[in-house]
Amino acid sequence: MPHRIAIVIVNYRTAGLTVDCLRSLAPQVGPVGARVIVVEGGSADDSPAVLARAIAENHWSDWATLLPLARNGGFAFANNAALRIALAGADRPQYIHLLNPDTLVRPGAVAALADFLDAHPRAAIAGSRLEDPDAAPQRSAFRFPSIPSEFENAIRLGPVSKLLARFIVAPPPSDAPHPTDWLAGASIMIRAEVFDAVGLLDESYFMYYEEVDFQFRAARAGWPAWYVPQSRVVHLVGQSSGVTDPKKRRRRPAYWFESRRRYFSRNLGRFDALLADAAWMIGHALWRARRHLTRRPDTDPPHLLGDFARNSVFAKGFPR
Fold first, then answer.
1. What distances in angstroms separate CA 45 from CA 125, 180, 218, 309, one per listed residue?
2. What's the pLDDT tens digit per position in 87-128?
3. Which residues lie closer than 8 Å to 50 by C-beta, 6 or more apart?
């Protein structure tokens, strides 16, 4: 069977997780006609050797290729290195499957995404149901961020959430396929034609928001995204970067704020980006006051409000 799916996995200092991900993929690639490009994103550790050895020792070289990069240019940069190869080759795939290294692919998950796109020619992007190892679903089908959603997300107050329900970015997961604004980039399959229409991932994002930006551009060009819960993928949240791991209270890195500021400024416009930042800071300040009065535990990243203010469009201006 010709290769109709190119699966792209970016490794950055997570070689063990990447090997486990490849192992979960091994029984699935042949039946669906997939090949895998493992991008080693300039980890500056033993990742290239570990990955090369795993591919050779497990006899995965028929379907898995290692693409080492000389530097860490970020998530979009690393994915694009593989996308350029996959999309320019004579054996151009129908679909590109972007897959995180901190995932374990349940049986049939890749086929479920491809089958859905085969059966729904107007669907452009299909995303998996992401779940915990115990099969509890994670929220992975989202609405695009907005000014009201930033306030709702920051204030964390039931009556406000009810009032702004139609703006909530992360609604509860569904058991049925449905269209959605955007999908978590941990496991999404994209028609090759979408890249022809809207371009590759924007490399000005170092990490975070690049998949939201890409799907915003796709939606604006008439390429909709669909959530496909029949495709089930275990997502070990935050293991790749550590930033979003709910078990670790790590300070948000500067690149997270830069990516957020870039997304809002470019896609909502400068005035709305200012309002979105103000809405979040006001909402979060109110939440902190309520948390202090009720003596709730602080589960937020350290120095979040101060870091947000220092990296807001009010302080940093608008990205170029």
1. 34, 38, 36, 35
2. 997 789 999 999 999 999 999 999 999 999 999 999 999 999
3. 15, 16, 19
